[in-house]
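Session log. Operator J.P. requested a structure for one protein chain; no other inputs attached. Running the standard single-chain path with token output.
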Amino acid sequence: MQRLRIHIQGIVQGVGFRPFVHKLVQSHGLKGYIKNSSSGVEMELEGERETLEHFVQELPEKAPKLAVIERLSCSYSDELCGFEDFRILESKTEALRNTLISPDICICDDCLREMRDKKDRRYAYPFINCTNCGPRFTIIKDIPYDRAKTSMSEFPMCPDCEREYSDIEDRRYHAQPDCCPDCGPEVFYLDAEGKRLEGDGIELAREKLRAGGIVAIKGLGGIHLACRVDDEKIVRELRRRKQRDEKPFAIMCRDAECAKQLCHVSAEEQRILESFRRPIVLLRKKQRGMEHISGNDYVGVMLPYTPLHYLLFGEDIDMLVMTSANLSDKPMMFKNDEALEELQGIADGYLLHNREIQTRCDDSLCWVLDGREYFARRSRGYVPFPISSAKPLRQILACGAEQKASFCLSRGSYVFPSQHIGDLKNLETFSNYAQQIRHFQRMFDICPEVLVCDLHPDYMSTEYAAERAEDENIKLIRVQHHHAHMASCMADNSFDGKAIGLVWDGTGLGTDGSIWGAECLIGDYRSFERFGSILPIPLPGGDRAMKEIQRVAWSLLQASGLDASHIENAGTYKMMLENGLNCPESSGMGRLFDGVSALVGIKQKCSYEGQAAVLLEAVAEDDEGVYPISFTGDILRFDWRDMIRAMVSDMDSGAAAGRIAARFMNTLVEMAVLQCKAAREYSGLDTAALSGGSFQNMYIMSRLPKRLEAEGFRVLRHHRVSCNDEGLSLGQLMIANAKTEDI
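Structure written below.
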């Protein structure tokens, strides 16, 4: 006989971990106890050494799917306590503040089966859940995570639910959202004027959708607008009402087989599509078309993830447009009264419920790259799961950037990236940003010792950090935008050393006061040097050139010594450049994509950020051609002028836009390889970290890493946070921690 002490760190609260351990202990005939500790779970067990070892082996193998065991340490002793049984010990409230919280997850197979069973007391109940599924993050008001501190506090459990909740042998043991039709929330349907209609709310919504209506549907983390996918007229009407002319819509399909009717779905894509996290997965269309849904090669597809969604599809609806209900860059709506007021004239009906959403959380959005998620947006299903660090971190708040805003908080060995917040363009989004920072601090009991923000003085996130640092007398560190991107990719891959950072995005303030955006950096968390970039591009009209991208095309032609007189307002742009009137220069890769897209006639004006680059990628054909590559300047700048001249020559020869697009992106891939090889020769480093929004281009990401690896590089790419500005706060935090380690 021996005594075994086990310490587990990870997500082990509110995920059915203790009932699982109880059953596993019983199956092995062991005795002892389990309790929550300040850093996870502690257990002590007594039994034969061989039995204890089998128990330890099965613990991670059979753990509930929502449990995440990050670290498991064991120590054996011959000194016995003489346990008589196995007990679950109560833990102190303060200890629970250091445990992790599960994200919201989709309905499990057991609950889905019960919901479809006419003999079950929860038949057709849209809030069915258990310890293995349902809401978590979006209903929590505070911790410890118990019913009294969630949205379910308004719904006292009936005797039957109470009995399940208290029975350790039951699947709903300590499931805080546990409820049934007798004691839980309810759904209801309102017409376009907000009048509540009698009858089955879900069936009324189904009728409206089948008839070609637009219905606002309240889900886990917010409200969606839904309509039929196969009715192009109503989809375009939704675009008109929502003032979303061209940006793609996501769709929800009944199942993966339904998605395969529209898109190519690999085994890896299907695995992530059907995972309990249920992100929107960007899938390639089987054929061109569906322009009313998406104007590019990809369609964002998700599967139902709540009981309500499954009931809504019924047996006769296969797919629906499912887009966030938000207006004019405001955050996703999540309150009933807000939807009824703001969606007047947009929604033809409202399927709502009376369980409050405490924290809005948009759908996650990703590609599948190398068998893993490659995020455009990390949110529902993943947040607030942390990223672990190999070494302890200070308590730091990293405030992120301006577009695709996010923040990160750290404590101990964990970094907690926030959910998608949005662009900090208006008071509503900024208020949500500040509120979520406070909520995360409260949930994880973090009091920042250091604040970190971007160099750009006009970002609202920078202003927030500066004001708070002054008010609370906290140290403030400002970090260069692209250094933060590079550090984010390094941290995403648990890399702690020096690397070559290839960072391609649209805009970021450089240390020299100019606009950077296609950078080759060399450095680590503490410091960096700018080794390479691209030739700066004049932007007539400044920010206007980011939407009216024919201005950028004019600059590319003019700088390359080519005729640009055919471009509208060419004379005005020339005057602005010659007189230095609002014509800043940018080395942004996003601007180069914009200019080339306009140059080859794909797009002249953009209706959303990144549209020109997305459409350029979409038209690319199979072509291995590469345009001339040359470099110039004190730092290794790609001189795109030779490329532009060759591109125009192709156009004059009648080459298709798709061929030119492919050759352009092939040229960028080869340019990047040459830049990294030169950086390796200079520094001796052979690790390359790829970050920045321009690396959301799957044409480039399917080629560049392979080319670098063929040249002997170790390539780091994102897989836990977004490569765009949303993931940048992770890099800020790691840089700040490195800079304050010795303080």
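Operator note: The mean pLDDT is 94.
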